[in-house]
User: What shape does this take?
Amino acid sequence: MEIKHTAIAGTLESSDIQIMLSKIEGPTEIELESAVEKQFGTQIRTLMQTILDQYGLTNVKIKAVDKGALDCTIKARLITVIQRATDKQNDPDWEVLG
Amino acid sequence: MNYSQQLKQLNLKELHYYKQWAALLTQEGIEGLPQVPVDVDGCLGIFEDQQLIATGAYQKNVLKYIAVDANYQGGKLFNDIISALINTLTQQGVFHFFVFTKPIYRQSFEFVGFKLLAQTSLAVLLEAGDASLQQFIAQVPRLENQSTATISAIVMNANPFTLGHRYLVTQATQKSDFVYVFVVSQDVSLFTTEERFKLVQQGLSDLPNVIVVQSGDYMVSYATFPSYFLPESQDIIEYQTALDAQLFKKIAAQLNIQQRFLGEEPFSKTTALYNQALKATLPPEITVEVIPRLKAATQTISATQVRKAIQNGTIETIHTFVPETTYQFIKQNQAILQARIQKGMQVDGN
Assistant: This one.
């Protein structure tokens, strides 16, 4: 799958995460800003990478500002931003969602 | 936001909203509020029981006039209003944002993902989004001997490119191995960014040790130095120019730029203040040299004169002010340029 343009999903409210996804030249970069970076930083990054892999996305940049989101929220926000960035809002990839 | 709070678009042309908005900003210590019409593209507010408790606005890609009622501070409403502003901008296809604020608010913005660009004792400039200063610096063309060469820089709007601009560049080439000419990217002048850039390139194409680069959002833009384009009071110009100069210093360090050349400024008060700020901020790392204006016969060359001649339909009078490439462009596009002036494009500004 290919990123068509930069997109954003989520908010900066408590228990949410704001994720911006854009296309870059080099390998995938995940930039995470989180109050729980020490405790859950690795786990959040791994979760994000897993979802990117499921969609077959490489050479992307994620900029995330986490306000203590749970894994299910992170997953939901990331899937949304991927669908927006790939112009698939109305045509979701059901296999990945399952 | 909780259930009793509501996010709304604020139409500041409505006196009822303007009054509440101005009251909140004044209460939170934001001074020098503009009168109606306020110079913003959009403004949002969070209300509780008809009372405005948080607000934020934007103009192009810059967040402005952000304030939260002191009784509700603690971060939550601040994050809400920033979220709402970012969502509004991204819906318009803007994914790179700047904020210009007081140093005490720096951390609040860093908590929501903004990165510091420049700081003075009076103000800070931060950015967030899908582009960054590092990416901008990375895409500037490099020389083979970047680290050992004597490199200088000039920043110009060139609206349009004149022999005065060319003279400034040739003076710089005599005093350094290599000259970066940064052309202002903000597209708010009589000549479009694309036109200005092309005319600069054409007018300097015979000089081998010059490279023409877009200045992006990082030099003399709506983000770094809005008062270059919008009328402002002297103290606002002063702290904006100081920030722009700080940021230039950061960029120069990575490109090994050791000298900045400026055109002497007898006409524009804003540009004169800008030159002063650069002289105060850039040394000792970067030396600043001011080159006196070139005179054609008895008249001092300025792009303002060129624009006035276009307005008056007397372009023959400025034939000696501009390179042939600029003259031909003006001649061929005179009608289009005059139409832009008639639509309200300023001739006297920058």
Remarks:
- The beta strands of chain A are 7-9, 17-23, 29-34, 60-66.
- The first strand of chain A starts at residue 7 and ends at 9.
- Residues 7-93 of chain A form a domain with the Ribosomal Protein S5; domain 2 fold (CATH 3.30.230.10).
